[in-house]
Amino acid sequence: MPSLGDEFRVAREARGLSLSDVAEHLHIRSTYLQAIEEEDWSVIGAPVYIRGFIRTYARFLGIDSEHVIEAFNQTVPSAAPTKQWSGGSTLAAPGAGRKPSILLLAAGVVALALVAYVGYSYYQLRMTAAPQPTSTAAIPIADGSATPESSLPPASATPITPPGPPRPVRPVLGIKLTQLSWLRVNVDGNLVLEGEFPPGTVRDFKGKHVKLLVGNGGGVEVTAPGQPTRIMGSEGQVVERDYTLTGKTK
User: Fold this and answer.
1) Running DSSP on this structure, what letter comes out for residue 151?
2) Surface-to-core class of residue 88, CB atoms within 10 Å of its CB (0-12 exposed, 13-18 middle, 19+ buried)
3) Would you list the DSSP string of 6-51?
4) Please, what is the Cα angle at 63 between 46 and 8, to 5 degrees?
5) CA-CA distances (angstroms) from residue 146 to 149, 154, 155?
6) What is the pLDDT confidence band of residue 221, given thresholds at 50, 70 and 90?
7) How far apart (Å, rounded) are the C-alpha atoms in residues 205 and 171?
8) For 42, which of 11, 79, 105, 215 is 20 to 30 Å away at the CA?
């Protein structure tokens, strides 16, 4: 019985396709496709990401996707997904419950009491402050009439410095999840986000170059500078895109 990788390779060669041909059609790097055929899972990364590649590749070749997913699950145990931000901290998978501590609740009560005290003290200070007198003294002028002092122009005026040129606004790439999806985001060569995220997740990324890799193209909407919002692909499709934040997409 052929191995999982051999099954993909044989099916591809039977159709007369090279790895480059498949990569161009599926928008998946040929190195990842080769890793599947060689069962070198370390090249791809997280198991949830590998499953997405396998499913997409199998559907393209006409292989039973559920069969190959089951075969992969028997060789590699699933792992709980994590999320990592640019600061380097690792967050628990979505849905992990947290119970507020007693110290946190106590700190909140103290903070609210302090805010109320400061607000009350400020109100009392305003109520007891004496109003400032307004000068209405008149200054005689040549024709004998009087002009209120407050209506005279100031003796000198401070010149107003015109505002400088506005600072350039850094282009932003925005993503929004409408379905559960696995994401990996690199900005200017640095990994800033990785993990599985629920529907409703919204993120913005600033930089010169953003590389976006998703495990469910049909559940991810992308808004690039100068472009309308677009869905990255079909449901369950693994999609990789490179964005240069000038409104163009590679």
Assistant:
1) G
2) exposed
3) HHHHHHHHHTT--HHHHHHHHT--HHHHHHHHHT-GGGT-SHHHHH
4) 60
5) 9, 17, 18
6) very high
7) 9
8) 11
